[in-house]
Amino acid sequence: MRALFTTCFIIGALLLVLIGCQNEVDIRTAQYSVNGQKVYITHCQNCHGEKGEGLGNLYPPLTDVKFLEKNRQKLACMIKYGATGELEVAGKKFNATMPASNLSAIDIAYVLTYINTKINKGKDIFPLAEVEKQLKNCQ
């Protein structure tokens, strides 16, 4: 009985150590992703779909990683102030107007992180500082 108790205690202690060893980046990424999912459901999902698949030829998918990487410096402005004109995403051309969202910088950081980490299975967070810098340079 004592051996069983000792074994259970050691396993429990190891689990606590493993859980407690999450680094700050992992915790921040999880926080941004969870909050981003809420923002996405409220402000983006209706047009871009539950899984970022887009809506036919009307609204582009958010699953084109190459497009997102190429346009990373423009994404915050597109979300905040909307977008007009033709975009080529995932090999298709889209010309619908994306309305302005008036989301806060932190909400934009959250939703971009959600799109990157959950929809596209990436690892990069969109830090608040990066989003704020982009928003200062919107044209």
Automatic annotation (TrEMBL):
Q: Alphabetically list the UniProt keywords.
A: Heme, Iron, Metal-binding
The Cytochrome c domain covers 31-119
One MF term in the entry's GO annotations? heme binding
Q: Which domain of life is it from?
A: Bacteria
Q: InterPro entries, per this entry?
A: Cyt_c-like_dom, Cyt_c-like_dom_sf, Cytochrome_c-type_DH
The region annotated as signal peptide is none
Alphabetical list of PANTHER family matching this protein: BLL4482 PROTEIN (PTHR35008:SF4), BLL4482 PROTEIN-RELATED (PTHR35008)
**What is the name of this protein?**
Cytochrome c
